[in-house]
């Protein structure tokens, strides 16, 4: 590894910065083509119904209409996960939420398409809707889907790492708490849009606002029955995504099908209301958390139960369900750990991955419960956490490998920055400080579909002009992945960043990268890019070393120069070196690829949770709470994030502050919630706020100042040591807000969002608490039992009580 | 539907003669008839500010403005902001300070900020936040947007010295 960096670590303008401030960047909806037609979708007004008949004749005859599609045109279902292929581009026999698409009109313009939608007649036979997981558990019939565990249970998971009952029994104190985390949605500024056309060679192309062009590519081939070689998916720069553009969308299949049928370009741009229905956002999760602790504040074990409201389809649900458990023991050492998770289908828009995927909910409960534990033990909450943080290069009870960790340093940093020790409890009436921590993966250890191929591939092509072209399937969703790739390659080759051009997210040109999810791009695409760049460097060094009078491994590439490490001789320019190598060897190109390391756990299900590295964060929130109105004001937030290394500190800080912003919105106001219409109006379950006005999010005026510290301890598994920063910093904010409110006015709001009415209600109650008060009987299965590493486990499933060590 | 012809509209300092159906919004006419796709739509209901442009120097939500109402008016969009090949100080500051991440809200915020700085060359942090409170951004957390506007204001004041 180089000791001195030319580019890495220095704040700079991102490579796509100029195109964004000039309005020149083309998002999917900015694409126009000659003879382009427009698609619109007819969506179900009912949450749960059988589609008996669809009459499209009048719509087809409407002037300007070119095509009307229904579920009959799409016999093959899709689903992002191979185990949950349960969705049709247009619903066939059944609609499962208000907003489920049932038909599509393709017309000369949007106005005409909307008119024709009104001419389609659908006859529905209503079915009783399931509005919550509790209802779903109570009413196994009618089933929303005919697959899953049983009744309306989509997915059940149960794992026990060491005998948890035993360790809780032996604990000095056991804390049992219930928490609820309401769903919320991504709300990207850009609504999903797609443009499909048949290219001049007769192949299908779609340009779409997707985070995962590779997965979309596979799904399109499957659903349309067209060979993958005949389809090209171009991920246009996403105007924000946050997980909301991970799933393929019905609209993407519709425009592709229509383009193939009509031989003309077909575009669709969803309305803001439709984006709320597409959703795939944060699952509402009810949690029960039982934690044991010794008198001196050592955690002894946790038993976590979660119940997820999945909505109408599978989406990423099986993974989401795992994530409500698996990352819980990464921050603190639990000698034993058990989690049971259950996802229930309901008649609401499907939930899926949103920034932090499944982990913010249990993290909220865990970090609020730690605050309660600290209070009971009379300990400083920061001290309690420091006492229990996981150690570097350790294993969790569940066999996750914790590599580098800067969590302790993060805690110490925010404690110092916020004046925690001097100010906590001394701010006066109605003011308080709260602390919380978290962790996140740097990329999921396994792909969404089982395969042994690399997770990311990069090709670099050099030109005798000195320009460097980097091809990678990674998708720029605003997070800065293009900048990461350009910066890493420029650093490795010692060229100006302006010499590098990145071509990304195009299945027709770029090597496969799995997509922009699970905070995987910097690490996986970054490592692949470095491998390719290092191969090129050694190729060139091999050619020029003789001229430079040194050995190939003593050739240095820096600042547009290539020279001997001892700086003897004049060296040569980068352009001269490339020309010399091209003359000697021919056109210069190299590929690199990356596969994550094998995880130590070997039991079935051990594939979810492992990651090449984990980022860590700690956060302190200050609150002012008005006891008369319940109004919560947050004047300041301090956050420290263990990023390994900040490749471009401007972007890294931006991700941290942006994560804090989104977390604070979730903590205080964001809510994807539903209500039932009165029976006489249909009794349908409808979205409370499918608009940006009603769905509350923070504005510039609501946003407090955020003080950021980046903790840099380079991780050996990551490119130049850089860990993720896109998701982690969101996660500690919600529990820190809850803990700060407790510190301010002494009420425990054990659910998210924390709104003024809940604060007022808690103030009035004797318990000084608002939160769930019961957890339903969930038929969790018998757990997969695995012994922790320190109980002589081998990472495989074992028989319970085969060996019970004393904790 | 019969198309209306709008005369006397100035877009980015140049006369624009354009025809369109009378119900079209300024946003639609800019994007679809004039090819100025730098102005974004985010909600079509005046909730998000992504479509903000300047009409006679005032920030306006182009999704709520009928194009026909712009006869005789001067419209400024993000495409007209740069000074030839040079970025306007607001544009430069937004790229340098991380004021733009996914970039989708950026044109609307920059145009809103321009209107602010045209009127008030030395806004306080609070005035900047107030002026941009109608522009939703889901990426930045607004802090780096305010940093960028403060820096651009400083830059513009220097230029005037």
Summarize the entry for a quick read.
The complex is a heterodimer of chains A (807) and B (161). By secondary structure, chain A is of the alpha+beta class.
Give the helices and strands, then pairings.
The complex is a heterodimer of chains A (807) and B (161).
Chain A (H helix, E strand, L loop, with lengths): L16 H5 L15 E7 L5 E7 L1 H5 L3 E6 L23 E2 L5 E7 L2 H8 L3 E6 L6 H6 L14 E9 L2 H6 L3 E9 L11 E6 L5 E5 L4 H12 L6 E5 L14 H13 L3 E4 L2 H7 L6 E9 L5 E13 L5 H7 L13 E9 L14 H18 L3 H8 L5 E2 L5 E2 L4 H12 L1 H4 L7 E11 L14 E7 L5 E5 L8 H13 L6 E5 L16 H28 L6 E4 L2 E4 L7 E2 H12 L3 E6 L19 E12 L6 E11 L6 H20 L5 E3 L8 E3 L17 E7 L21 H13 L2 E2 L1 E2 L3 H9 L4 E2 L13 E3 L21
Parallel strand pairs in A: 1-12, 7-34, 8-32, 10-11, 14-15, 20-21, 27-30, 31-33
Antiparallel strand pairs in A: 1-5, 2-4, 2-6, 3-5, 7-15, 8-13, 9-10, 9-12, 13-14, 16-17, 18-26, 19-20, 19-25, 22-23, 23-24, 26-27, 28-29
Helix pairs in contact in A: 10-18, 14-15, 15-16, 17-18
Chain B lengths: L3 E8 L2 E7 L5 H8 L18 E4 L2 E4 L12 E3 L12 H8 L9 H14 L5 H7 L11 H18 L1
Parallel strand pairs in B: 1-5
Antiparallel strand pairs in B: 1-2, 3-4, 3-5
Helix pairs in contact in B: 2-5
List the uncertain runs of chain A: none
The gross shape of chain A turns out to be globular
- The gross shape of chain B turns out to be globular
Report the radius of gyration of chain B as a whole number of Å: 16 Å
- Number of beta strands of chain B: 5
Structural classification of chain A: alpha+beta
Strand content of chain A: 15-25%
Mean pLDDT over the residues of chain B: 96
| Sheet with the most strands, sense and barrel status of chain B | 5 strands, mixed
Oligomer: heterodimer
Using a beta-carbon cutoff below 8 angstroms, give the protein chain pair with the largest interface and the number of residues from each chain: A-B, 57 and 58 residues
How would a textbook summarize the main sheet of chain A? Answer: 7 strands, mixed
- Give the low-confidence spans of chain B: none
């Amino acid at each position: 590894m180089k000791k001195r960096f030319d580019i890495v670590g220095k704040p700079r303008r991102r490579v796509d910065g100029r195109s964004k401030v000039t309005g020149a960047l083309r998002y999917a909806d900015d694409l126009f083509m000659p003879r382009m037609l427009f698609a619109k979708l007819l969506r179900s007004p009912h949450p749960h119904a059988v589609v008996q008949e669809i009459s499209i004749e009048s719509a087809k005859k409407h002037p300007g209409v070119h095509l009307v599609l229904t579920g009959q045109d799409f016999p093959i279902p899709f689903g992002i996960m191979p185990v949950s292929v349960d969705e049709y581009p247009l619903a066939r026999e059944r609609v499962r939420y208000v907003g489920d698409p049932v038909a599509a009109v393709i017309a000369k313009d949007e106005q005409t398409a909307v008119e024709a939608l009104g001419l389609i007649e659908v006859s529905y036979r209503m079915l009783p809707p399931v509005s919550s997981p509790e209802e779903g558990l109570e009413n196994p019939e009618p089933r929303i889907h005919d697959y899953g565990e049983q009744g309306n249970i989509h997915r059940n998971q149960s794992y026990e790492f060491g005998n948890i009952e035993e360790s809780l029994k032996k604990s000095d104190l056991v804390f049992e708490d219930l928490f609820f985390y309401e769903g919320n949605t991504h709300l990207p500024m850009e609504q999903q849009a797609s443009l499909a056309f048949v290219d001049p060679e007769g192949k299908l192309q779609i340009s779409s606002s997707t985070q995962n062009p590779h997965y979309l590519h596979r799904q399109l081939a499957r659903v349309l029955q067209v060979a993958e070689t005949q389809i090209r998916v171009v991920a246009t720069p996403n105007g924000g995504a946050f997980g909301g553009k991970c799933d393929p969308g019905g609209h993407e299949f519709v425009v592709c099908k229509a383009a193939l049928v009509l031989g003309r370009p077909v575009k669709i741009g969803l309305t803001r209301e439709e984006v709320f229905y597409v959703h795939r956002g944060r699952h509402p999760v009810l949690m029960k958390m039982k934690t044991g602790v010794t008198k001196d504040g050592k955690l002894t074990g946790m038993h976590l139960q979660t119940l997820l409201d999945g909505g109408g389809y599978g989406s990423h649900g099986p993974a989401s369900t795992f994530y409500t458990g698996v990352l819980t023991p990464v921050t603190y050492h639990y000698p034993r750990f058990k989690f049971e998770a259950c996802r229930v289908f309901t008649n609401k828009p499907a939930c899926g991955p949103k920034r932090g995927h499944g982990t913010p909910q249990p993290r909220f409960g865990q970090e609020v419960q730690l605050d309660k534990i600290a209070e009971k033990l009379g300990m400083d909450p920061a001290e309690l956490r420091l006492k229990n943080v996981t150690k570097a290069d350790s294993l969790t009870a569940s066999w996750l490998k914790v590599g580098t960790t800067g969590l302790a340093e993060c805690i110490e940093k925010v404690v110092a920055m916020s004046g925690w020790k001097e100010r906590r409890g001394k701010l006066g009436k109605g003011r308080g400080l709260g602390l919380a921590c978290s962790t996140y993966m740097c990329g999921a250890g396994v792909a969404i579909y089982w395969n042994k191929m690399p997770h990311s591939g990069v090709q670099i092509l050099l030109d005798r002009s000195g320009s460097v072209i980097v091809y990678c399937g990674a998708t720029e969703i605003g997070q800065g992945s293009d900048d990461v790739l350009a910066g890493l390659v420029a650093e490795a080759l010692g060229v100006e960043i302006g010499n590098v051009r990145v071509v990304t997210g195009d299945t027709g040109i770029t090597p496969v990268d799995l997509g922009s999810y699970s905070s995987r791009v910097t690490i996986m695409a970054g490592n692949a890019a470095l491998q390719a760049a290092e191969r090129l460097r050694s190729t060139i060094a091999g050619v020029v070393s003789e001229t430079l009078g040194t050995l190939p491994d003593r050739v240095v590439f820096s600042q547009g120069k290539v020279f001997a490490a001892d700086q003897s001789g004049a060296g040569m320019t980068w352009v001269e070196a490339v020309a010399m190598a091209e003359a000697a060897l021919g056109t210069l190109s190299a590929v690199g690829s990356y596969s994550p390391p094998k995880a130590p756990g070997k039991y079935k299900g051990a594939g979810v949770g492992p990651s090449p590295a984990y980022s860590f964060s700690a956060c302190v929130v200050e609150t002012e709470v008005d006891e008369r109105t319940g109004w919560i004001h947050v004047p300041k937030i301090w956050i420290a994030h263990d990023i390994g290394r900040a490749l471009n500190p401007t972007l890294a800080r931006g991700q941290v502050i942006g994560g804090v912003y989104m977390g604070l919105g979730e903590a205080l106001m964001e809510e994807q919630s539903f209500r039932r219409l009165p029976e006489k109006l249909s009794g349908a379950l409808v979205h409370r706020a499918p608009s940006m006005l009603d769905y509350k999010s923070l504005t510039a005026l609501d946003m407090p100042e955020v003080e950021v510290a980046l903790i840099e301890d380079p991780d050996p598994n990551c490119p130049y040591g850089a860990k993720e920063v896109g998701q982690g910093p969101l996660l500690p904010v919600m529990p820190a807000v809850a803990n700060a409110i407790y510190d301010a006015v002494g009420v425990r709001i054990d659910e998210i969002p924390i709104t003024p009415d809940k604060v007022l209600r808690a103030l009035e109650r004797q318990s000084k608490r608002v939160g769930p008060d019961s957890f339903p009987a969930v038929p969790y299965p018998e757990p997969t039992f695995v012994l922790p590493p320190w109980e002589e486990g081998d990472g495989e499933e074992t028989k319970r009580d085969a060996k019970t060590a004393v904790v | 539907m019969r198309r209306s012809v709008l005369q006397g509209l100035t877009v980015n300092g140049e006369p624009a003669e354009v025809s369109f159906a009378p119900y079209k919004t300024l946003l639609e006419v800019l994007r679809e008839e004039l090819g100025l796709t730098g102005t974004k739509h985010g909600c079509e209901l005046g909730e998000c500010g992504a479509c903000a442009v300047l009409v006679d120097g005032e920030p306006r939500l182009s999704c709520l403005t009928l194009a026909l109402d712009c006869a005789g008016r001067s419209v400024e969009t993000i495409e007209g902001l740069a000074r030839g090949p040079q970025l306007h100080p607001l544009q430069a500051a937004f790229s340098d300070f991380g004021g733009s991440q996914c970039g989708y809200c950026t044109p609307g915020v920059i145009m809103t900020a321009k209107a602010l700085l045209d009127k008030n060359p030395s806004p306080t942090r609070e005035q900047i936040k107030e002026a941009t409170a109608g522009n939703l951004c889901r990426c930045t957390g607004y802090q780096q947007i305010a940093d960028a506007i403060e820096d651009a204001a400083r830059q513009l004041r220097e230029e005037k010295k």
